[in-house]
Amino acid sequence: MRVLVTILISLVLLSCNSSEDTVFEAVSSNGLLKLSFNLSDEGQPYYLVTRDNTVVIDTSFLGFEFKNAPAFDKNFVIKKSETKTFSETWQMPWGEQTDVINNYRELKVMLQEKVSPERFLNLVFRVYDDGIGFRYEFPEQARLKEVEITEEHTQFNLTQDYKTFWIPGDWDIYEHLYSTTKLSEIDALKYVDHVNLAQTYIPENAVNTPVTMVGDDGIHLSFHEAALVDYSGMTLKVDTENLNLESHLVGSRNTDYKVKRSLPFYTPWRTVQIAGNAPDLIASNLIVNLNEPNKLGDISWFKPMKYTGVWWEMHLGKSSWDYGMEMVDGEWVDTGKAHGRHGATTENVKRFIDFSAENNIGGVLVEGWNTGWERWIGFEDREGVFDFVSTYPDYDIDEVVRYGKEKGVDIIMHHETSSATETYEKQQDAAYALMQKYGMHAVKSGYVGKILPKGEYHHGQHMVNKYNNAAIKAAKYEVAVNAHEPIKATGLRRTYPNIISREGLRGQEFNAWAEDGGNPPEHLPIVAFTRMLSGPIDFTPGIFNIKFDEYKTENQVNTTLAQQLALYVVIYSPIQMAADLVEHYEANPEPLEFIKDVGVDWEATRILNGEVGDYVTIARKERLTGNWFLGSITDENSRDLEVSFDFLDASQEYTATIYKDAKDAHWNNNPLGLDIEKIMINSNTKLNLNLAEGGGCAISIIKN
To answer: Residue 231 needs a FRET pair 20 to 30 A away by CA distance; which of 171, 441, 588, 681 works?
Structure first.
């Protein structure tokens, strides 16, 4: 990986006390964003942010509460400050683009209490052209060896009643539909005990991050965090009257603190992406730039890929995860109760391998291959249920892997932990070693259900460490991790690029069984500007049989077929599933051509247009081939969008295959209405995209 550092300048300013005459600030390289820091008369640290001389975040205070120790909230003096300018270009081993510019101005302020016990605290602010990040640093010191944090008080004091796209601050799950309200109208508590969720805990009126806001003046903000390591996930408590957000850490019922750390340490970065329009939010690299460089070195063993798999058929009810055997005297035996609907059979997986090999698809995911599925749903004590190395009798892993290699198709492992963390941790080395033996380089992990040990939540410090440690250990076995029911993405894919994707949102499967009618057409035009800002999404697009009446008459996918194709470009992941059944693809060979052609690893990305919650159009250039692919999606409203292809190479002609909504297409009334045409285009071409209600457009742009 090439890293080019172009500028590094440091300046040290000494000060015993802050004053109104002393300026502590950092300004972005383009001069638009400015962050200012100081202390109040009571020695309270605060900051504010302006954009183009307009206050975006007003005076916002910072601090902590501790167990059995005085709070860090006032009586500070500034002992020293440092500023520096930093610029580098680093390369993603895989990603939305190859080269990433990391250019910021940093302000570091070193504080000390002026009263006993005179402890130290540092604050580090980085200002980019596309936003700000800051974190707390607890330096090594004689009077403080360990902290038990009961709460972090990081404020974001806003200056207008923003239109806000949010999900509730659930400590256990992110699988809520997004609400769109004014900031002053947020009511997270109305989503307590949601019927569709396996686990949920919403203790107060707070939102999870990323949370995105649009102002009357066109300013766009998104609040999140970066580099979440050995710390609790952050929700943002909402003061609807004063238009204020404040950090509220996820806790535990097993401790009376939320974070426990030995000094020295630093917190995750608190981030605000700031843009003048919606597309620039997606284009921002703030989150990954605030993470440390690659610690793994060469990860060429991981190849971005498309994959199929034994998964969607279980959500439809065509087959099941479990085999139907019973445990007798410590062994799994056929008691005559096997139901014959098991999906992960050798024969069925070979069918997916054949289809994948014929259609430029590199992998097959197999869920339900291992023993334990009969016993975990509904049981409180799930420890010891799953075995991550033992197969059901009708799944011959040796034969499946051999056959896959013969066809050039990888097998993607599946580890459903059922949130029994001790069982999974004990078996991880054996499970990863099994993968290494068979040359499997990707695993989809799951954490469905309430966390064991009881009292822990999915997003607390305990589970942050479990998720991160599982991925770090996996790298030693050359395994890449795609986590479901995860902790939020915070850009750690830069530091550990075997963290390839994750769920962390309400996914495609809700369309198959949710009692509220599935994901509405506005869902993904919101997700592109919220959840996707944090990192890659394993959304599992590509459903062709949108109504699936032969399995479930009360459910469907609420998009057109053209939008399902467009999602391969719009919703980014280095692994993209062709999620539907083989027979549904075989019945629709023409739209299948787009899935065969579309890339998964990108040299460059262009956000061509978009409005949060309404529509978005994205073009991506494939690494190695130089071919481009375009995806455009809309909500429940039809759109006519003009797109310029001026991003194409000026001297190159391309063949564009356009997969578009038919004139009478509609997400509900005619979701399969699809027209396909081929035209020649170049960098001077402009096209009008006509998107149906809940529709989309997908274009493959292949060099001649």
So the answer is: 441
